[in-house]
């Protein structure tokens, strides 16, 4: 959004959490106009800029309140006239606040109570609330919503069937929006999964009770033929009839934030049941993870770090896996670290569950760009698994594959290739050529071959992987989409940019549709497409996409993450082609400095950053500095990749070009002679 050059609105609704600073979500565009709704008067003034920028909405008039009550209570004109004085008394008691009036009207409609009976019950319940007895509803810090709102809400809640009340209590520990039948249906299908059937660490009595509660609750929506949409919809319709829940017509239910807060105060014991219910949704479908993540994040805010640490490690591991799958690696890291600590304490350092937890934590560190830490942990995992389980055990083979993936990020392609060939051989012998793990091993090896410049060999493997994915999973499965993207990247390496562009547009469209515009995999697809557009000479379109990618990387990963630096380098390359050499140089010097500090001077990504900066310096006429860098790049490429690798040849060509500009023709001729010899 920061790149838009026309006026646009950013709308943030219900900014009622005093612990969240919304300024971090504001676009820095000069064209943005931000609208925030909040019930926190202090926050309203904190976010405002200039006189008159805070608009405080006043309560309804008596006439407006009467009309709203009549509409939501479904009162006839005759009933409104007959009960005029009682209605006036009720809306006055509710301070003419629209939410309270609508809640009261819905309760009258649902219960069938006369207005005078509702008013009597309202007065009785309010007295109990004021007295502090017989109720568990807790106060909140929300401005302008005093006791009368809680009273109307509680009356509506109390008339619901127990099944609907239980559903609402569970929903109060989820995010207040995006509540779907699919979420509960997935939980029902997974609730008896082995995560709760067996574990090396016993579940506490509290967790066992929560599991039984979750299972029994979900079985209320089961008919003779399994899950019953009719039963679930009836329950949700009951909750909607009192205005506690609302339905948007797109299979999503939501709860007003104030009601959401009230519900959470009714019964604290539902917290663990909600943990179990959400953790039970075992799925490899990325779309499911995307839909779950808001609920997981909200659920985790309901407990302190210390309380989370006491949750069973398998539950935390399931939640961490979901967070990591949508790119929230820092959040996942915290949970997976708790899992490792608990397994280490209860099972010992060499137990298979502890080693598995260590591997998961290391993989998350790799995603965060902490490659050295990840390598150390994964080597320890592999060594212990080889010793304890043997070299042919599936867990040992997985550990070897994880270590190879990390070595790729460290630029150690030759070492990674040896491991990946061993993994692929063992997968083929143990599982057969068409098993998903075998296909994954083939995909990983192909990626390493690309890093080694062996694109033709990689292409053959990736076409086989894609064919098997399409046949086994269909064209829209996440693994199939990955296979299309990987093949497109290899085709770019082979110079087949038009075919690559078609594939990358397909990948981007499917990821935007399935995962949303801000998912890490969607952003990756955008970056890949922009890189291909650059190669096709479509620099202006490439720049627009790359600026959006960079903005999302900086916001999601921070300024120093490897993926952010990669996005900066891509943008600088395009700026160079657009003739914006000074801007490109500034970006490339920053990228090179950060990669030298983060990855070391000999990492392939660092060498590439040096090569890119040297190209820009050449365009700026700074040939002496460019020559020094290009000699260093060539030396490192020859030592690491050999004289015939494509990247080495490119480095030689760059140096020859600069030497010609420096009129060192004899040296340039020597380099060009080497190029001709290698071309033969």
From TrEMBL:
<dbReference type="InterPro" id="IPR053137">
    <property type="entry name" value="NLR-like"/>
</dbReference>
<dbReference type="Pfam" id="PF13374">
    <property type="entry name" value="TPR_10"/>
</dbReference>
<protein>
    <recommendedName>
        <fullName>TPR-like protein</fullName>
    </recommendedName>
</protein>
<dbReference type="InterPro" id="IPR019734">
    <property type="entry name" value="TPR_rpt"/>
</dbReference>
<dbReference type="InterPro" id="IPR027417">
    <property type="entry name" value="P-loop_NTPase"/>
</dbReference>
<dbReference type="InterPro" id="IPR011990">
    <property type="entry name" value="TPR-like_helical_dom_sf"/>
</dbReference>
């Amino acid at each position: 959004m920061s790149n838009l050059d026309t006026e646009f609105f950013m709308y943030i609704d219900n900014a009622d959490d005093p612990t969240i600073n919304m300024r971090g979500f504001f676009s820095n565009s000069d064209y943005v106009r931000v609208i925030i709704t909040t019930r926190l008067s202090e926050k309203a003034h904190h976010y405002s800029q200039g006189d008159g920028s805070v608009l405080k909405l006043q309560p309804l008039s008596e006439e407006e309140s009467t009309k709203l009550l009549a509409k939501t209570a479904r009162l006839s004109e005759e009933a409104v006239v007959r009960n005029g004085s009682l209605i006036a008394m009720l809306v006055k008691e509710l301070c003419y606040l629209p939410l309270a009036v609508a809640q009261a009207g819905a309760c009258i409609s649902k219960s069938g109570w006369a207005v005078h009976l509702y008013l009597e019950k309202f007065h009785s319940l309010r007295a109990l609330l004021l007295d502090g007895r017989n109720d568990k509803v807790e106060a909140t810090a929300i401005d302008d919503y005093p006791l009368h709102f809680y009273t109307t809400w509680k009356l509506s809640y109390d008339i619901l069937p127990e099944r609907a009340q239980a559903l609402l209590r569970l929903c109060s520990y989820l995010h207040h929006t995006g509540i779907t039948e699919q979420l509960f249906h997935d939980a029902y299908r997974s609730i008896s999964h082995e995560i709760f059937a067996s574990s090396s660490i016993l579940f506490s009595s509290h967790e066992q009770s929560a599991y039984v509660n979750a299972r029994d609750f979900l079985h209320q929506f089961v008919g003779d033929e399994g899950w019953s949409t009719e039963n679930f919809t009836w329950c949700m319709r009951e909750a909607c009839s009192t205005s506690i829940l609302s339905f948007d017509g797109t299979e999503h239910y939501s709860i007003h934030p104030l009601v959401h807060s009230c519900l959470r105060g009714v019964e604290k014991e539902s917290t663990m049941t909600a943990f179990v219910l959400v953790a039970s949704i075992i799925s490899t479908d990325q779309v499911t993870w995307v839909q779950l993540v808001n609920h997981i994040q909200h659920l985790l805010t309901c407990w302190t770090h210390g309380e989370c640490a006491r949750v069973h490690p398998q539950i935390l591991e399931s939640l961490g896996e979901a967070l990591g799958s949508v790119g929230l690696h820092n959040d996942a890291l915290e949970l997976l670290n708790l899992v490792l600590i608990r397994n280490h304490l209860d099972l010992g350092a060499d137990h298979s569950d502890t080693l598995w937890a260590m591997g998961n934590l290391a993989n998350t560190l790799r995603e965060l760009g902490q490659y050295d830490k990840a390598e150390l942990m994964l080597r320890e995992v592999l060594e212990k698994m080889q010793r304890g389980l043997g070299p042919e055990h599936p867990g040992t083979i997985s550990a070897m594959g994880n270590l190879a993936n990390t070595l790729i990020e460290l630029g150690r392609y030759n070492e990674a290739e040896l491991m990946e060939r061993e993994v692929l051989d063992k997968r083929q012998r143990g599982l057969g050529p068409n098993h998903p793990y075998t296909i994954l091993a083939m995909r990983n090896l192909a990626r390493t071959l690309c890093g080694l410049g062996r694109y033709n060999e990689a292409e053959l493997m990736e076409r086989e992987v894609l064919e098997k994915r399409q046949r086994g999973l269909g064209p829209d499965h996440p693994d199939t989409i990955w296979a299309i993207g990987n093949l497109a990247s290899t085709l770019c390496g082979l110079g087949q940019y038009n075919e690559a562009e078609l594939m990358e547009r397909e990948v981007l469209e499917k990821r935007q549709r399935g995962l949303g515009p801000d998912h890490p995999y969607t952003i990756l697809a955008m970056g890949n497409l922009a890189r291909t557009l650059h190669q096709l000479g479509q620099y202006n379109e490439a720049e627009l996409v790359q600026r959006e990618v960079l903005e999302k990387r900086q916001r999601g990963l921070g300024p120093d993450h490897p993926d952010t630096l990669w996005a900066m380098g891509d943008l600088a390359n395009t700026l160079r082609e657009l003739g914006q050499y000074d801007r490109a140089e500034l970006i490339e010097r920053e990228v090179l400095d950060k990669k030298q500090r983060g990855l070391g001077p000999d990492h392939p990504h660092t060498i590439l950053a040096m090569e890119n900066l040297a190209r820009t310096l050449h365009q700026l006429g700074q040939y002496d500095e460019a020559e020094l860098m290009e000699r260093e790049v060539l030396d490192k490429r020859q030592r690491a990749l050999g004289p015939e690798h494509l990247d080495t040849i490119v480095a030689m060509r760059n140096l020859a070009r600069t030497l010609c500009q420096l009129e060192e023709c004899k040296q340039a001729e020597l380099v060009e002679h080497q190029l001709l010899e290698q071309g033969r």
